[in-house]
Input
Amino acid sequence: MSNTRRDRAAPVSRRRLLGAGAMLALAARPATAQVLLEADLREAIARWCAGAQPREGRVTLDIAPLVENGNAVPITLRAASPMTEADHVTELAIFNERNPLRDVVRFTLSPASGRAEVSTRIRLATTQHLVALARMADGSVWQHTVEVIVTLAACVE
Amino acid sequence: MARTLIHVPPSPRRGEVIEIRVTIAHPMETGYRPDDQGRTLPRDILTHFECRYNGRRVFAAEMHPAIAANPYLAFTLRVQDSGSLAFTWEGDRGFSQTETVSLQVT
Amino acid sequence: MAIVLLLGRALAADADPRRTGFDFMSPALQALQRDDTQNPALLWVQEGAALWARPAANAKACATCHADGSQRGMAARHPRIDERSGRPITLAGRIDQCRQAHQGEAAQGADGAGVLALGAYLAMASRGLPLAPDSDPRMAPWVERGQRLWQQRMGQLNLSCANCHDQNAGRRLGGAAIPQAHPTGYPSYRLEWQTLGSLPRRLRSCLAGVRAEPFAPDAVEWLALETYLARRASGMALEGPSVRP
Output
């Protein structure tokens, strides 16, 4: 609008910022398109991983994409694993993005489990991402992210 | 003692991987809900579950307030010997309950 | 001959436009209700079975008077005329009344622990049976009153039950499907309540939903509505204790 010093400088720095931002975004995006999660969720996952770098795959979180009521949402966690002494899942965990607390549940399995498959019902405060993680006996960590849409009752009591 | 529902297949074969389903009656009060006066209801949840097969722990769960009321867990177990399955729930306010079921393996 | 009968039944089923709330739920919740090893209402059914058999302090159990097998059909026959009062009585009301009269129990109301557990147990025992409320002519004025209430606009939202559940069933309100509101699955484990609850509780929350002043707890309006709803759903198969969002 007015020819102030700030205005004259702004377009140049805006362009530079946009350029830098685009570079950053491209650099941050890994080969497989990944959701950028909130910082506290990433921190909670990092703490659970205890130094191991999670890789995509091997673990799946079965959950309805659209949920009518977030008070009890059925889920099934599965991990591809022969569950032998040499190669088995030791832990499964779920973290969330928008509940009051990041943790949802952590499971401890053993070769005696036979299969890496656990079901439960969880609470979801609102539409959000969930991250499922599996830790293997060899220390490797695997993850899978899903988005769940939570609708709320129209008639609220 | 809270009510429980426990489902174990009646006559599994040795070496078979069975699915066990357990439910326990518990409100799993999150600690974030207001009562009708607007006061926050204190947290009261179950925090741990474990299954012991003939005394050996084979499965455990660490539960947080995000587990739904009347917590339901389904997990698997490769059965070998007949014997007992002990299911233990623990939680806030010193909650502790164990249910034992016999396992007949054919 | 059998083929003709089957075809006839299929055609009749298509001709009945009534659907229970089950049909309006997501596959995940339908699966939850169908599976007796997952449906949380089974916690109450189990409790109800124990209560049925357990003698009270005066040594009378439900099973003392009610022959084994007679549980099946009890839920299907209610509401029915209670001879003592000359008014309709719901199954929950009858359970509460029996416990007081014959077992020395205190009144609990439809959402009392014992009444809910026995209600769930008896609902399970009638699962699959068609709802067949009393056809006694004394029921008629109650059905009519219930129907008038059903059609009466109420509350700050100025909506009648019929506006949503007759005229807009199948459509969505907010993100939620509007069911036809047939009482075939009570008591119901409503996820919103995180527990098992009665039809009167659901009706109270309906009134709250349209921002209407609820009727007094012992008001005859609740009974009239339940009586009308049962008549409206007459012939539909009972679901046993249901899961609802």
Remarks:
- Chain C has one domain: 19-245.
